[in-house]
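Sorry to interrupt, but I need a hand with the structure work. Could you add the entry underneath, on a fresh line?
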Amino acid sequence: MPNTHGPTIDPEKARRENLRWFILLTLNSARPIGTSEAVILSTVQGIIPDVTPREVRNELDYLFHRELITLERRDSPVWHADLTRTGIDVVEYTVPCDPGIARPQKYW
């Protein structure tokens, strides 16, 4: 029987994309010096209580490869992240946001 209730939602995909947006917002608040992954994890856990350090690292890596953030000390136990110019523009809604990040629609 065909699906008549609209598109199917993939909760894992939605979780990843929301986590990426929350990481960008956290890093925007930490400008201009950036912050450690521990602070990012702690902040995001206020929104997604069961988020894991591994999930945060996975999404930091994703955002790094999208060139929205910089990552320092990737070979050390604690990573440090900061927004790039493009990452700032995405958070400030001055450039389009490609799929993969759950940036809400601009309402103002």
